[in-house]
Amino acid sequence: MIPWSITPEEAGIMKWSIETALGMGASQVRATLNKSMMDLVQMRDGEVDKVSHSGDRSLTLNIYADNRYGTFSVNRLDKEHLKDFIARSISIVRLLGEDRFRKLAPPQRKIGCATTGLELGLYDSGYGNMTPQRRREIAADACGAPGRSADGWKVISEELEYSDSIYDMMIMDSEGLECRHTESSFEIGCETTIADSEGNRLSGFWWDSQSFLSRLDTLGCSRKALERAVAQIGPKAFGSCRTNMIVENEVASKLVNPLISALNAFSLQQGNSFLKDTLGKKVFSDGLSITDMPLEQGANGARLFDSEGVAAAVRPIIENGTVKTYFVNTYMSGKMGLEPTLEDAIRPVVGSHGPWKDTSEMMAGLGEGILVTGFNGGNSNAATGDFSYGVEGFAFRGGKIVHPVREMVITGNFMELWNNLAGIGCDARTCMSKIIPSLAFTNVDFSA
Amino acid sequence: MIGQKNYYTDLFSIDVPQMERLVGEALSGGGDYADLYFENTAFRDLYLRDGVVSSGGYHIDYGVGIRTLVGEKTGYAYTESTDMKAMLSAAQAAAAISPGIFIPSDKPTVAFKGSPNPSADRYPVERDWREWDTAEGAAFLGRLDKMIRARDSRVVKVIGMISCQMSDIMMFNSRGELKYDTRPMGTVAVSLVMGSGDKVRNNHVSRSYRIGAEMLTDALAEEMAGEALRNIDDRFEAKRPEKGGAMSVVMGAGASGILLHEAMGHAFEADFNRKGQSVFSDRMGSRICAGGINIVDDGTIRGNRGALNFDDEGVPGQKTYMVEDGVLASYLHDRISASWYGVRPTGNGRRESFRYNPVPRMRATYMEGGNSTPEEIISSVKKGIYVDEFANGQVKIGEGDFTFYVKSGYMIENGRLGRPVCDLNIIGNGPKALADIVAVGNDARIDDGAWTCGKEQNVPVSCGIPTVRVENLIVGGEN
């Protein structure tokens, strides 16, 4: 028995909710039940600072009635309360404007082989054996920096957090869909703040997240957070210039996420995408290939279906610089006259390109520039692709790091940036749901 | 909006003796303090796209969070049921922080006795959102859409949104304090995409208040339509600065208050200072900017998005001077940090919902007005940038490095506004930026946009500032 998993009684409430909504006049209904439970231990300077326990359960109903549509959610699942809730929901739907494209996904596109939730191998059977004491032991053992000091710095505080959780989700609809996804998660994160010899405070953060406890790097987190804080001591000014930029795998998603968002049909239909009218066109460097790989057994972020219950599949998103996929759900498919795909990328994997494996080889290959290890704010314009981000990291020269930099801003346009791609490593962190290695670009605008 | 006590106890199916039993259970292993936070939130939203209000929703979130404090240490648990068995189980989970023996606190306690006072209610509600008609909202969005499209033919797409919520809150703690409150929040937002030739521009405008459905007036729609298309011709001409780098930045009145929120406000939150992490940890009582500058965090502005009758620990809403005449005067405290520092809580203990324990958070953060006119400030700059629309910001607490993203502004050359600029990030350092404020305008204004602060949890806030000149901020540009 998986702790806090969806019970047959709760599955029965989902079915009852669908039937009740249909009985009140809905033409189609989709019900999604999300359940999760999480336990957390937070340490500060080697001592337990916070423990928490939470259990969540919420039912979302997507209701279609008279060519109208609404989304409703509730976390009180007794039938008496639900009946009133559904009646009110239907009355709200009927006051909305007509939209003939709102409908469930056709049956042939929906998943048919996700009945237990365990198909992708994302549940650690040891999760049920976790105890409050075991959690405290893991967190305490992971603490490494409290009180540490060395020539030129001392630790001000170390905040370390360990948590584990279970997530169970089931979707049913009025046309017979029934699918489920279950996964456990074990996470650790550490933020260490140090003071240098002049009293300046600097912080470093590191984390890991895995579906299986045995894969979690519990002991390396504290060390890496401290290393990242200490490495920032002694930043020097770096003048405004155009130069090479390497973006560490840890933060590279900042530059990939806007590309994937721009391929979403909703943004495209609203004219709020810089990748409008690019399907099938080569608009990026040959070196850029992104593939959605949602079906990898045991991999973080893997899913068999999207929130409509549509079956996931391996598909190229961008191939050798050519846009291959727009993410089109059932609604946008009808509205735009496009073939439906998925509502969004599930587990995008950015392919390696060029001779460099990681940031060290990139620095050696490029000679000089800025290695970006953190972004500090900023944003991008979805319509134009213009971006401006605060960055921090290290200046490198002769292929080696020479000093930390901060208070810098990069400015540009995503189309130009990705056409200045110099290389993509093969060092992606597997703890993320987006698999993105370190990236190297030439000719990037830095302001400082 | 404050109801009768029975309304809340009936809603959550509990009475005072039962609440006493729960806090007793939360303290059964020892500890200084325990509290209960009951919440019932009804949330509705409506969306207009392509000229039709064709989607919307209704959502209910109900539950109780239970907290045990042992000194500065926290045990927290919540349940989505107010069944006594479920709540006792949560209380026992929260009690897990306890050492197993009773440790009496040596810190003085501050009690906020007394019943809520409806006459001091800071949420003026003439029309309860729970009674609000969906059709009325759809009609409002339709009018807003038409107003915007009628004003400019370059408008290609309009997305309009209304969201509203009413949150019934009841709090009880181990000191016997019982507080209850019903918090409204109404928000209207509109996003535009505009096209002219091959140029595409977008914009986003929002208004958000702790008031009732009476906020949906034609005057509001007119105001938002005007704001959405303000300086539209300049938007099409806007570019990045030709050269980025350090320069003088004149922050326009209102939304530029994000500077205070990111650069100073977070660093004044007492949890970061208690732990020694903030760049201001050892500067209480020190001069941190020029005399005459006052920076405030205020929960008492009636109807404001950051207004609070009580914070989420039952402490009365207050106005707190963080910087008074240029001197750091107060951090923003929850009960934990106030006890640690030996001061009174400032009413800044806030949380996103019953799922989160409260931590020090801002409310409405602003700078009081100075003596200069905005024109005098702009004319004093030989070369710099004037900024007046913002999207988001961020700060690194330890280092004090902050950023904010500018949607639009103008170059300043020889004291005059020059060519328009857009989509650039500005970065600076909190203490340095405070010390580099060289002029403060007499036009202080609070921005009524739907600002949301995301420190671990999302809470509604607002911000404001008069026109201010700051030296040596790093502006993103082309080189």
- How many extended strands of chain B? 22
What do the pLDDT scores of chain B average to?
Answer: 93
Instruction: Determine the CATH topology of the largest domain in chain A.
Output: PmbA/TldD fold
Portion in beta strands of chain A: 35-45%
Relative helix content of chain A: 10-25%
- Give the low-pLDDT segments of chain B: none
- Main sheet makeup of chain A: 7 strands, antiparallel
Tell me the Rg of chain B in angstroms.
24 Å
Describe this entry's structure for a reader.
The complex is a heterodimer of chains A (448) and B (479). With 448 residues, chain A is α+β, with helices and mostly antiparallel strands. Chain A folds into 2 domains: 8-230, 2-Layer Sandwich (PmbA/TldD fold), CATH 3.30.2290.10; 241-447, no CATH class. Chain A has helices at 8-23, 79-93, 132-142, 220-230, 253-262, 265-269, 330-336, 359-366, 414-419, and strands spanning 28-44, 47-65, 68-74, 149-150, 153-173, 178-196, 201-210, 241-247, 290-292, 315-319, 322-323, 348-350, 369-380, 386-397, 400-413, 421-424, 439-447. In chain A, the strands form 3 sheets. In chain A, strands 1, 2, 3, 4, 5, 6 and 7 form a 7-stranded antiparallel sheet that branches. In chain A, β2 (47-65) and β3 form a beta hairpin. Chain B is of the alpha+beta class and 479 residues long. Chain B folds into 2 domains: 5-235, PmbA/TldD fold (2-Layer Sandwich), CATH 3.30.2290.10; 245-475, no CATH class. Helices cover 21% and strands 38% of the residues of chain B. Chain B contains 11 helices and 22 strands. In chain B, a hairpin with a 5-residue loop joins β14 and β15. The termini of chain B are far apart. The mean pLDDT of chain B is 93. Classes of the chains: A alpha+beta (448), B alpha+beta (479). At the A-B interface, β2, β3, α2, β5 and β7 of A face β1, β2, β3, α3 and α4 of B. β3 (68-74) of chain A pairs parallel with β2 (52-70) of chain B.
